[in-house]
Every structure is written in C-alpha cells, then in structure tokens.
Request: fold
Amino acid sequence: MKTVHQVAYELLRMHGMTTIFGNPGSNELPFLSRFPSDFRYILGLHEGVALGMADGYAQASGRPVLVNVHSAAGLGNAMGVLVNAGVSHTPLVIMAGQQARAMMALEAQLTNIDATQLPRPLVKWSFEPPRAQDVPAALARAIHTAMLPPRGPVFVSVPYDDWSAAAEDSADLLLARSVTGSGAATSEIIDSLAARLATARNPVLIVGAEVDTPQAFRAAVQLAEASRTPVWIAPSASRCSFPTAHPLFRGVLPFAIDRLSAKLTGHDLILVFGAPVFRYHEYLPGGYVPDGAQLVAVTSDPAEAARAPVGEAIVADPQLALRHLANVAAPSNRQPPAPRWRPEPATDRTVPLSPEAVFDVLNEVKPDEAVIVNESTSNTEQFWQRVEFDRAQSFYFPAAGALGFGIPAAVGIQLAEPGRPVIGVIGDGSANYGITGLWSAAHHRVPATFVILRNDEYGVLKWFADALKATDLPGLDLPGIDYCAIAQGYGVRAVRIATRDGLAAALSRFIASDSPALIEVPISSVG
Ligand code: TZD
Reply:
C-alpha cells in the first residue's frame, strides 16, 4: 500500500514538477523527507524569494510549479510577490505545512490558524484536505486548477502527519488523469472579428502578457502585417508580446486613462489580445477610448472580461484566437502607419551614467536570445525606447508592481531557460526586497547577471510625489548601501562600474560566464 507521501511525489513527477522551490520549517520536513533523487529543491532564504523564483520558472517554462513554504509565517512572507503571480496568471501550486491534526484545535505552536483564509484573495483556490487520505486528490486538483484558464496560483495546506498516512487505492487513478481547458473562440467569432478588421477605417492591435508565446508572437506579426495595423503593448507591461523594432510597433501604452485614450486617437477599432482593459496605475480620468471607437478584448479571464469599463469582451484563449484570426485576416491595402519615434543614441559619458546610456549599452551588448528581467521603476519609458526584443519570452516585469520579483525571477527564469543568458536590470530600491535571491543564484550555480541601477533613491516615488503634489516626504532616499559587498557576502562576484566602456566590457564578460555576477552602476535620476 502506498503512502500519501509516495502518491504525492508520483503526481508531481507525472506533471513534470520535479523542481521545487521553498523554504522549510518543521511542519514541512515530513513532506521533504526521503526527497527523491530525480527532484531538485531550490532553496530561497526568504519565502518571497522562493515564490519569486518559482514565478519566473513557471512563466518561462509554461508549467505548473510547486512552492513549499512554512506554515503561516512563511506563507505570509510569500504573499507580497504572490500579488504579481495572480496578475500574471502564473500556475503556482503553493503548499504550506500545517501542525499535526491532533494539535490544530489546541493552536499549538506553528498552527496555521484559518490557513485557507490567509492567501485569499490572491489565489484561485485555497484548500486544507479534511482527511489525510484526501491529500493526493487535493494536490491533483490544485495542479489542474492552477493550469486551467485563466491560469493562476492556488494554495494547499497539509498537516504534517498526513504524509505518512496510507493512501487510498483509488489515489492511483489520479496519476492517469489529464484535464484540458480548450476554450477556443468559435469560427463565427473569429470570422466576425476578421470582417470588422477588414472594414475598419483605422484599426489598432493591443497585445498583452497572455500572448507572449512564440506562436502568438508570430501570429501578432502576421496579423499586423496582413491588416497593416499598428500594434501597442498593453499598459503596465509585464511581458513583451511583439517585436519592438518592427515598423508597426508603436510602444507601450501609458497607464493613465486619459493618456492611454489620447494615444488611440483616430482609431475606430481597437482589438485587445491577452490583456485586461486596462491595467491603469496613475488616476487621470477621461474617456476610456476615443469617441466612436469600438473596442473588442479577447482574454481567458472571465473576471478581466467582466470588469472592463468599456467595449466588448470575448472569454476565449487569446493565443488561439490571435493565431486563428491571423490565418483568416484578409490582406489590406491601408496606408501603413508612420514609423514610431526613436531616440538618438545617448552619447553622454558623464558619471554617473544616465539610464538612457545604460540601456543603450545593454541593447548593444545583449545577445538576441537574451532574457531581460526588469525591476527598475523610474526609467521604464527610457528602457522601452532603447532596449529591443525580437522574440517571445524575452522580457519580464513584476505584473502587479510588487517589488521583490526581479532578482528571484531572474534566477527562476535562468533555471528554466539554461540556454539563454538572463540579465536582471534591477533598481537599487527594488533589489533589497529580494536580495537573498543572490545567495540562491550562487548556491545553485545559476549564471544570471544582475545589473543594479544605483540612484540611491526610490526615484519613481519622487516622480509620483510631483504628480500627486505631495511635498516634504520622508523615506524616499536610500544612500549608503554597498551592493557589491552584499553580493560578495552571498557568494556572487561583483563589480562597481561607472563608465560606458567598462559597463559594456563587464556585461559581455558576465553574460558569457557560467556563474552569477552583479554589476553595480551608479546612475542619474530621470529628468
Ligand atoms: N513595496 C513593495 C513590495 N512594492 C512596491 N511597489 C513598493 C513598496 C512601492 N514602490 C514602488 O511602487 S516603486 C518603488 C517603491 C518603493 C521604488 C523602487 O525604487 P528603485 O527604482 O530604486 O528600485 P527607481 O528607478 O529609483 O524608482
């Protein structure tokens, strides 16, 4: 007879979930006991880091990933960056250990009181099995739920004495199950979109994170070229779903209602694939779309569809819809739009370097297949103007703006994509939320390169302070932090570089090396 422990690992193996991220406590040891040799455990020194690494790994691999955290305290630590995973629809199975069943009612030390309540509302499903024998089925359901559209994180709490319990014979049936969500838009829907696109006077495409896959990336290009339609990336971009040097690419839409709408002036049909309508940030009210424009959004997420303030929404797989529409769209003889404005190369050789100069160097040096994780907040506009991507799954940003994603996600993505160099471009403020991810990179020999943009401040909050007319603010400067010393303390080699040539040389060297490295670059503030 199998134990719950045995079936759980068989289930994880069957779903390809053999890389587990976590940080253990006593409640989790019975699960980790007799850890199978074909599994690997990636240790994060803080649960936010474990979850951030898992988020990167799951986004890059497209697979469900198990994150094992400690009871209430560990889950609490993980919840900051869990906000991102919900928004990015990352299929994470978060599992926390629970006190032994016999002592839960006593609220013994390490009881996770009301465990299922704790991660809500950030997870799709939250469950504590009523009996030990229900653990395998709960884990199976968690995996399927995480992967069904819209994908997203789920939570399971498991009392630690459950692992040694006997599994029911029927648990083996779980090992033979598959659950598929197809959710394809019907041909009628696609034909009607194609007809509207063909007859629109001046249509525009907006692509979001959900269509950042190689096939959908190509389909977006095919559709844009056939219909001669300009393309924007949806605001608060967490992924890049269109080649940024393509003549039809317009940029990333602004995250304020009125500014976004102004960018779409003149368009009569707005087609959105794989993004909410829209993920705004700064509150500048106005019309959501230009007067008279029709908006149609295709998303896998019923909640995104239902809460959009304007337009039509179709709940269907946006990748399939994009590919299907690209295949049936009639070629158009519309005037192609004028190419987007491109900045002059930043020629400054000042010290500190401007963010523009740093991004130009990064763009020159990075190989085409590189993946960039960006968590630098005051200079994203300059970043998008200067750093190019020509293929899918090359750009990641914290989807909900919850800091602590960048360093860990770079580690997780590098683990999932060993053949592509991964570069984390991280603001100095942001770096501190996930800094212990550097130790995970060193310990697990993950050859990601980290560029810390050091402006000694929470730069974007100063920009927001101006926008909000907030004055005399405390807490926006963070001078005196030595990122090289910190990196070295965690076992990552590090250099401080202040010049363009030095940066280019160090970046090339570290990108090509097989161990992690960090470059601290002093930069000027934006503006
Ligand atoms: N805490 C967490 C977990 N997430 C947040 N988003 C914030 C605080 C607030 N916050 C931002 O939204 S941006 C930012 C903070 C503190 C400043 C980041 O500073 P940085 O980048 O040095 O990384 P810039 O370029 O100086 O803005």
Remarks:
- Residues 80, 376-379, 401-404, 427-430, 433, 455, 457-461 surround TZD (CB under 6 Å).
- The first strand starts at residue 19 and ends at 22.
- The longest helix spans residues 71-87.
- The radius of gyration is 24 Å.
